[in-house]
Amino acid sequence: MSDQRLMGSDGFVVVAKVSDVPVGGIKFVEVQGVPVALCRVEDQFFAVGNVCTHDAGPLSGGTLEGHVLECPRHGAKFDVRDGRVLCLPAPLPIPTYEVQVEGEAIKVKAA
Ligand code: FES
Predict the structure, then answer these.
(1) In terms of Cα–Cα distance, which of 64, 53, 8 is closest to 31?
(2) Alpha-carbon span 81 to 53, nearest angstrom
(3) Apex CA 60: angle with CA 73 and CA 1, to 5°?
(4) Residues 85-101: pLDDT tens digits?
(5) 7 versus 91: which is more confidently predicted?
(6) 59 lines ligand 1 (CB under 6 A)
(7) Residue 74: CB within 6 Å of ligand 1?
(8) H or E, element range at 30
C-alpha cells in the first residue's frame, strides 16, 4: 500500500488505526518517506520526528510519560506537543506534524 493511495487531497496520510496505539504508546510510522513517532497521550495523538537531534536515536523506541518523550539512547526529553527540548543532551527541537483522527483512522501530514 503506497502513501500515494492513502493520501487525501489535503495532504494527510492514513498511518494507523486508533486501536494500533495504546494509551502511552509510541508507534513508528513512515509518512511519505519521513520517519515519524506517533505518540498517544490519553485520547490525543501527536506526531513528531523519529530521529533524536542529539545522535539520531530512534525516538519511537523510547518512553512516553504524559507529553514527555524520552530518547532511548542518552535520555534527552522532548515535549510531543511542540517538539521542544526539555532535557539535554539534545541540542535542537524535533519537528512536529499535524494529526487528524477520523473514526478509527489516524492521519498525519508530514509535508
Ligand atoms: S541520541 Fe537521543 S539522547 Fe543521544
Answers:
(1) 8
(2) 16
(3) 145
(4) 999 999 999 999 999 99
(5) 91
(6) no
(7) yes
(8) strand 26-31
Is residue 77 lining ligand 1, measured as CB closer than 6 Å? no
Give the residue whose CA is nearest to atom 3 of ligand 1: 74
Query: What confidence score (pLDDT) does residue 80 get?
Result: 98
Q: How far apart are CA 75 and CA 57, in angstroms?
A: 10
pLDDT at 1: 47
Burial class (CB in 10 A: 0-12, 13-18, 19+), 103: exposed
The amino acid sitting at 89 is P
Q: Say yes or no: CB of residue 57 within 6 Å of ligand 1.
A: yes
**pLDDT, mean over the chain:** 94
CA of 37 to the centre of ligand 1 (A): 15
